[in-house]
Design goal:
Chain lengths: 270, 225
């Protein structure tokens, strides 16, 4: 049975699109046929992060409106056979996301894919609600700072009250915390919230901690999901998170300052 | 606190008379009989006129007539409910207030001889930011954490078995005996019967400890449990 996963956060700029791209690529690398959908209508970014911006012909809104069929709009990733990108429209806005249309597209995608990753827009309005409505699982992307944590808390509440599972009284959406842009050195200095603080406040299971890493920005700008960069700590952390999502036990890495970081702390930032 | 001293909320019991039944002589007779039975209770008692199902009463003068009629029965007409726009305008002109519709209205009140005990509201899931929970006429028990930006309101007591990080307003309709209990006080605001303390007014020694909060001599008093 296909599984719909929404990547959401409430707050903007915390790494939803990076996470959607990395998670989708990670699931594909593990042998699961996966599609990642951009729900951020009007602020299309996923295609850039996935490096397929020059291959977009039809988009999500075209398919919802019946102007194109699904297979015309799906873009197959050049790096992995299991990975597909479903871009959105840059010229429309979130109101073009009609729930019935989205539902029809989702049902069609479920016939073809094992995992459907929904990259949610920021906010708690129509676009974000539509992105999370059909979800079976949710990945709550949170930065270790108070405003991000509060917005995550809000969106967890919305998942519990406004998702389709909630409306139909079905088992609740299973919610996972993914802490991104984590810098153990700054946590040690008390400048950032620690993993345990965030876990305590949100009281949902922790899927992974993604360290702040230069490789993430580089990956975005070159259009390569960060999991394809084997050198990158962030990439490895995402692969761990994917493994945990699939039910494996993996130790949390990158949550304590490393030796190199210790010297960096002593001699100032390099 | 300044605003709180000038304007304070309070709840009153007000009789509701259905305008439709006023036309009925038998009703008027029955009402007069009841008033005669306990005249002190009804002396100058405030009355709200329920306009549901009534088409006339669109002129201020008509309200004046009704006012006079109720006056004869020692009742004081203070407002209307379920008014149509035209009726509301006329009522306003006649100096009457508009009340929100109540469920059941006067009839339910008459039929309900033994009011059912309000059941304590129990919440077992974390109360997330942006959520508001109101335990109308009862206590509220939360067996999980209450996040910053969440709001608990109860007419009775509030119990939180977990960290209280949001707002908690007990005795919301004026019960000064209501209390707040929590196993970990990190609240943004606590209030009992309109008296409140914001986070920075909470004694630092009480932060993150199990406490109970009560109103003693009109002062919010926090004691460690």
């Amino acid at each position: 049975m296909a599984k719909v996963i929404v990547v959401t956060s409430g707050k903007g700029g915390v790494g939803k699109t990076t996470t959607s791209a990395a998670f989708a690529a990670g699931l594909a690398l593990r042998g699961h046929k996966t599609v990642v959908i951009d729900f951020d209508v009007g602020l299309r970014n996923l295609d850039l992060v996935m490096g397929c911006e020059r291959r977009v012909v039809f988009d999500f809104i075209n398919v919802i409106n019946g102007d194109a069929n699904l297979n015309q709009a799906l873009i197959k990733d050049k790096r992995h056979d299991n990975l597909f990108i479903f871009p959105t429209s840059q010229t429309r806005d979130k109101n073009a996301l009609k729930r019935e249309g989205v539902e029809r597209v989702m049902e069609e995608l479920k016939q073809q894919f094992e995992y459907i990753i929904c990259d949610s827009p920021a906010g708690i309005e129509h676009g974000a609600i539509t992105a999370l409505y059909f979800a079976d699982s949710a990945i709550i992307v949170t930065n270790p700072e108070v405003s991000s944590v509060r917005d995550s808390d809000r969106i967890i509440g919305i998942l519990a009250s406004k998702s389709r599972r909630a409306e139909r009284n079905e088992p609740a959406v299973d919610v996972h915390l993914l802490l991104t842009r984590y810098d153990p050195v700054r946590v040690a200095k008390g400048e950032m919230l620690a993993v345990d603080d965030v876990k305590e406040i949100l009281s949902i299971p922790l899927l992974g901690v993604i360290p702040e890493s230069e490789s993430v920005l580089r990956a975005s700008n070159t259009g390569t999901p960060v999991v394809f960069d084997e050198e990158s700590p962030a990439g490895r952390a995402y692969l761990d998170a994917v493994a945990r999502f699939l039910g494996e036990q993996r130790e949390m890495r990158f949550v304590t300052p490393q030796r190199r970081s210790f010297f960096r702390a002593l001699f100032g930032r390099v | 606190m300044a605003a709180g001293n000038v304007v304070q909320g309070a709840l009153f019991t007000v009789m509701v008379v259905r305008a439709a039944s006023l036309r009925d002589d038998a009703f008027e007779h029955e009402l007069a009989r009841q008033i005669a039975r306990s005249p002190r209770f009804f002396q100058n008692a405030p009355v709200v006129l329920d306009l549901r199902g009534v088409e006339n009463l669109t002129e201020a003068s008509e309200f004046e007539t009704v006012k006079g009629k109720l006056r004869e029965l020692t009742l004081t007409l203070v407002g209307v409910q379920n008014a149509q726009p035209a009726q509301l305008e006329a009522a306003t002109e006649a100096g009457l207030a508009s009340f929100a519709p109540t469920s059941g209205g006067g009839q339910a009140r008459a039929e309900r001889n033994t009011p059912p005990l309000p059941k304590t509201r129990l919440v077992t899931e974390p109360v997330r930011s942006g959520t508001q929970i109101y335990a109308r006429g009862s206590d509220l028990i939360v067996t999980a954490a209450v996040s910053p930006g969440a709001e608990l309101v109860a007419d009775g007591n509030i119990h939180v078995y977990g960290a209280l990080r949001g707002r908690a307003l007990a005795g919301a309709s004026g019960d000064t005996a209501a209390r707040i209990f929590c196993t970990r006080l990190e609240a943004e605001l606590v209030s009992i019967a309109g008296r409140y303390l914001v986070s920075e007014q909470l004694p630092p020694g009480m932060q993150s400890t199990p406490v109970q909060i009560a109103l003693v001599d009109d002062q919010l008093t926090i004691t460690r449990n």
